[in-house]
Design brief:
Shape: globular
Helix content: under 10%
Order of helices and strands: EEEEEEEEEEE
Oligomer: single chain
Strand order of the largest sheet: 1-2-3-10-5-8
Structural class: mainly beta
Number of strands: 11
Radius of gyration: 13 Å
Distance between the termini: 37 Å
Length: 112
C-alpha cells in the first residue's frame, strides 16, 4: 500500500503540531511531522529507541543533553537511547521533518 500525508493516520500534538504516521510497527516507526513557527516539544528521552530526524523544510533547533544543534533542510541528526532531547522551531517558517525510530517509541517516552 502506498502511504502519504493524504491517507496516513494523522494526529496533532503540542501547540498545533501535526504528525502523519507513515509506518508504525514494533521494530520501526516513520512519521512526517510539521511544527509551526515558535513551537517546541517537551524535553524527554527514550529508553530503547534510537531516532533519526531528517529535515524536509525549514530550520530545526535540537536541544540534546546540555548542547544546542541547528539542523537545516536536507540535514539529519541522530538521537541515541536515554539521550535527553527536544526539538524546537525558532524560525519564522513552518518546520517539516521525518522522524524515524528503531524500535518504535510507542510506550517508550519519558518526559522530564
Amino acid at each position: 500500500m502506498i502511504i502519504s500525508k493524504v491517507n496516513a493516520e494523522h494526529y496533532t500534538w503540542g501547540d498545533h503540531c501535526d504528525s502523519w504516521v507513515l509506518k508504525d510497527t514494533p521494530g520501526l516507526s516513520v512519521k512526517q511531522e510539521k511544527m509551526p513557527s515558535g513551537t517546541s516539544e517537551k524535553r524527554h528521552y527514550h529508553n530503547n529507541a534510537e531516532q533519526l530526524f531528517y529535515i524536509l523544510n525549514g530550520k530545526a533547533v535540537f536541544y540534546m543533553e546540555e548542547e544546542k544543534f541547528f539542523v537545516n533542510t536536507g540535514e539529519s541528526i541522530s538521537i541515541m537511547p536515554k539521550q535527553k532531547h527536544y526539538i524546537s522551531n525558532e524560525s519564522a517558517e513552518d518546520l517539516e521533518f521525518l522522524v524515524i525510530s528503531n524500535p518504535s517509541t510507542e510506550r517508550d517516552r519519558i518526559e522530564i
